[in-house]
């Protein structure tokens, strides 16, 4: 693989795989398996995201019809709207993870997984502090998503966040 392609591959992998895991892979580790006696993991799922994307797509279709009837062209796509919204959501989550000292393990559409710093190779804190950091991240995320939705669609729209926090023994492989 050429160096340009390797850089692009690394960049894309970093969107899905935490940086500490990537460093281990690039250092030559092939079988990654870790166990943690104590850790905290947070899962978040956004409800109502698909409905907002569909509403955006309908509005775009109406705008396209108006533009076409006036001799203009407006190219829209529900997929483009959905990708832009997911990108905004991922950016919000990434910034908040940095602020709270937690690790954003994955963003999968309108779902994300965040873990205590010790899982991501960061400095371990006592478990109650890690769970508190994740809970504060979740509260901050809910507040930021509400502000983002209000700014984009107005006060009439809302997204619900389903949030689950688990702590204890964890084991996983990459």
Structure description:
The protein is an alpha+beta fold and 174 residues long. The two termini are 22 Å apart. It has a 4-stranded antiparallel beta sheet, covered by helices on one side.
Strand proportion: 15-25%
Largest sheet: 4 strands, antiparallel
Radius of gyration: 20 Å
Given as residue ranges, the uncertain stretches (5+ residues, pLDDT < 50) are none
Instruction: Give the distance, in angstroms, between the N- and C-terminal Cα atoms.
Output: 22 Å
Task: List the secondary-structure elements in sequence, H or E.
Answer: HHEHHEEHE
Mean pLDDT: 75
Figure out the total of helices. Answer: 5
**Helical proportion, percent range:** 40-55%
Number of strands: 4
Class derived from helix and strand content: alpha+beta
> In order across it, which strands form the biggest sheet?
2-3-1-4
């Amino acid at each position: 693989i050429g160096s340009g392609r390797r850089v692009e591959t690394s960049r894309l992998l970093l969107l899905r795989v935490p940086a500490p895991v990537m460093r281990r892979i690039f250092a030559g580790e092939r079988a990654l398996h870790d166990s943690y006696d104590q850790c905290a993991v947070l899962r978040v799922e956004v409800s109502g995201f698909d409905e907002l994307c569909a509403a955006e797509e309908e509005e775009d279709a109406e705008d396209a019809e108006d533009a076409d009837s006036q001799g203009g062209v407006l190219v829209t796509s529900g997929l483009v709207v959905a990708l832009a919204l997911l990108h905004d959501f991922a950016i919000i989550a990434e910034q908040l993870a940095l602020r709270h000292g937690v690790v954003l393990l994955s963003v999968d559409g309108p779902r994300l997984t965040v873990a205590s710093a010790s899982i991501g190779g960061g400095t371990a804190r006592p478990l109650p502090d890690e769970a508190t950091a994740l809970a504060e991240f979740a509260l901050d995320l809910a507040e930021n998503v509400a502000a983002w939705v209000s700014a984009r669609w107005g006060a009439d729209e809302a997204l619900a966040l389903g949030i689950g926090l688990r702590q204890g023994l964890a084991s996983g492989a990459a």
